[in-house]
Amino acid sequence: MFALGSKPPFAAKRPAGILNGIAPLASTGMVDDLKALLHAMAKAQSRRPFLVMDPATHLELLR
């Protein structure tokens, strides 16, 4: 018995990753990077992107 996906043509298929369809971006600073990331995700039709960060980073972004 074979596990689902172990037989051809499924052996080489994998689910799309979080960056599927998003081009790499050059870093220009945290705020600009986050703006570019969210813009790229919106362009790739991400439904509701959200960011997970520690409180110190969040406070840094607010100043």
Descriptive report:
This protein has 63 residues and is an all-alpha fold. It has a domain at 30-62. It contains two helices and no strands. The longest helix is centred in the middle third of the chain and has 14 residues, at 30-43. The chain is elongated and about 55 Å long. The mean pLDDT is 77.
Task: Chart the SSEs and their pairings.
Layout: H1 30-43, H2 55-62
Low-confidence sequence ranges: none
* Overall 3D shape: elongated
Q: Report the count of strand segments.
A: 0
What structural class do helix, strand and pairing data support? mainly alpha
Q: In what range is the share of β-strand residues?
A: under 5%
Any key phrases for this structure?
63 residues; mainly alpha; 2 helices; elongated
Summary?
The protein has helices at about 30-45, 55-60.
